[in-house]
């Protein structure tokens, strides 16, 4: 049967060798239940994506879209018998400085877009911690955020238009290089965050803004979680910094083990705060942050206008996940709550960690309430692994009780799918299913990811 598809694609695009396909079975979540595809299509042209999807629709074969494979929720985990369509080779970037837009393909790396925009004095703000290796297509699939989203917003705020290959192989164009466009339903926004369940995005029109000013950076350490969270709440009530990041003691120690920065291992938490206002105002804003941190019991505050020094502290925050990964196998959360409940969430996670006797490292985009708890366990200790999975579910339940979400930017994927029904409720889940069925009546797009059709 695959001979038919092979005849329709150029040499080298279709991969059927099991050893080669092994690299396309999992994303960064390392789902142990990943299936084996029957083929991988490494598309370099839109027509390759259309051909593969038309073939899959004809033969009722599941399709799993894949970009850089950097996803953290199992959203591009292969299922048995599927065709993985990889768009990592579709990576063109075209900047238009007049309209301040970029037309990019889904395989373009986030940082590559930033660099291309910077050549024209422009900036693409969304900056996940993995910006150096995550793809724009994947960012759109999960509506990724990042360290500066507290001030500048998330991926969807910069998506003006999409070209999407639908589950029947048709190519549709949604939106475009216009700042205002309300004709028809907002289908562009529907596909942002759809996790590959509605189609495959093959082109994106992004909004760019003038280059960011060099930020002034403050680092504050705290002896208690409560004091840290109170400082976050007071900061967000009074100002809008361009970065407001949180690391707990587990993260601090893991990062210090790897980076040897001289971070204080004895503290309970650390905040990294930046202001990118004009120099005079940035200094005033950061000085006010310092007053707030000290008022809430900070053990030390340090700020600098030196861009390299400031970037070093931001890099420490970005390094937190890989640093914690060095300490054991992890189950990665992505729960978010309203900012007034952030303290309850962080303290509650600490209690879960103690009750289940497992390590939980917590980092957060504190300015918008989005946390990334990492439950760490030794895979050779089956009892500890079981406790870790229990803690993972309890953290999800805690976030929902606090009026939060099971995912702020990593997506539901396969790892969080069991909690989706309780989070959405029956009526909203039914509406999701109806939209999914209307666009993908065969149910071939990324089955089992995000939500499972009845």
From TrEMBL:
The keyword Flavoprotein applies. Keywords: FAD, Flavoprotein, Oxidoreductase. Its cofactor is FAD. This is Putative glycolate oxidase, subunit GlcD. PROSITE patterns: FAD_PCMH (PS51387). It comes from Brevibacterium mcbrellneri ATCC 49030. GO terms for molecular function: D-lactate dehydrogenase (cytochrome) activity; FAD binding. Pfam families: FAD-oxidase_C, FAD_binding_4. It is an enzyme of class 1 (oxidoreductase). PANTHER family: GLYCOLATE OXIDASE SUBUNIT GLCD. InterPro entries: FAD-bd_oxidored_4_C, FAD-bd_PCMH, FAD-bd_PCMH-like_sf, FAD-bd_PCMH_sub2, FAD-linked_Oxase-like_C, FAD-linked_OxidoTrans_Type4, Oxid_FAD_bind_N, Vanillyl_alc_oxidase_C-sub2. The gene is ldhD. The keyword Signal does not apply. Its EC number is 1.1.2.4. Belongs to the FAD-binding oxidoreductase/transferase type 4 family. It comes from the Bacteria. Residues 33-211 form the FAD-binding PCMH-type domain.
């Amino acid at each position: 049967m695959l001979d038919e598809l092979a005849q329709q694609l150029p040499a080298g695009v279709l991969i059927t060798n099991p050893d080669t396909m092994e690299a396309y079975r999992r994303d960064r979540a390392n789902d142990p239940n990943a299936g084996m595809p029957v083929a991988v299509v490494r598309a370099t042209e839109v027509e390759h994506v259309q051909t593969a999807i038309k073939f899959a629709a004809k033969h009722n074969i599941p399709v799993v879209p894949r970009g850089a494979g950097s996803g953290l929720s199992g959203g591009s985990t292969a299922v048995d018998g599927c065709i993985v369509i990889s768009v990592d080779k579709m990576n063109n970037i075209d900047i238009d400085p007049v309209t301040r837009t970029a037309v990019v393909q889904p395989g373009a790396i986030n940082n590559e877009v930033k660099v291309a925009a910077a050549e024209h004095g422009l900036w693409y703000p969304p900056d996940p911690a993995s910006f150096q290796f995550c793809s724009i297509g994947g960012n759109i699939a999960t509506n990724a955020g990042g360290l500066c989203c507290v001030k500048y917003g998330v991926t969807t705020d910069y998506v003006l238009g999409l070209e999407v290959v639908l589950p029947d192989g048709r190519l549709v164009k949604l939106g475009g290089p216009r700042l205002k466009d309300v004709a028809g339903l907002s289908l562009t926004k529907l596909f942002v965050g759809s996790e590959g369940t509605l189609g495959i995005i093959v082109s994106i029109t992004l909004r760019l803004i003038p280059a960011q000013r060099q930020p002034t950076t403050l680092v504050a350490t705290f002896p208690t979680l409560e004091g840290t969270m109170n400082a976050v709440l007071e900061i967000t009530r009074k100002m809008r910094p361009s970065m407001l990041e949180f690391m707990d003691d587990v993260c601090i120690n893991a990062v210090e083990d790897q980076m040897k920065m001289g971070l204080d291992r004895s503290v309970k938490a650390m905040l990294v705060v930046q202001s990118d206002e004009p120099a005079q105002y940035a200094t005033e804003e950061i000085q006010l942050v310092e007053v707030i941190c000290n008022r809430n019991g900070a053990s030390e505050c340090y700020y600098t206008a030196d861009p390299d020094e400031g970037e070093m502290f931001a890099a420490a925050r970005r390094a937190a996940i890989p640093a914690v990964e060095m300490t054991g196998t992890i189950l990665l959360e992505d729960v978010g709550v309203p900012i007034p409940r952030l303290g309850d969430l962080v303290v509650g996670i600490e209690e879960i960690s103690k009750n289940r006797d497992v390590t939980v490292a917590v980092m957060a985009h504190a300015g918008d309430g989005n946390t990334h708890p990492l439950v760490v366990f030794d895979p050779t200790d089956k009892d500890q692994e079981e406790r870790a999975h229990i803690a993972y579910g309890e953290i999800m339940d805690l976030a929902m009780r606090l009026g939060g979400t099971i995912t702020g930017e990593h997506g539901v994927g396969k790892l969080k799918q069991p909690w989706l029904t309780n989070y959405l409720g029956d009526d909203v889940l039914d509406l999701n299913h109806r939209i999914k069925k209307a666009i993908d009546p065969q149910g071939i797009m990324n089955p089992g990811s995000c939500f499972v059709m009845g």
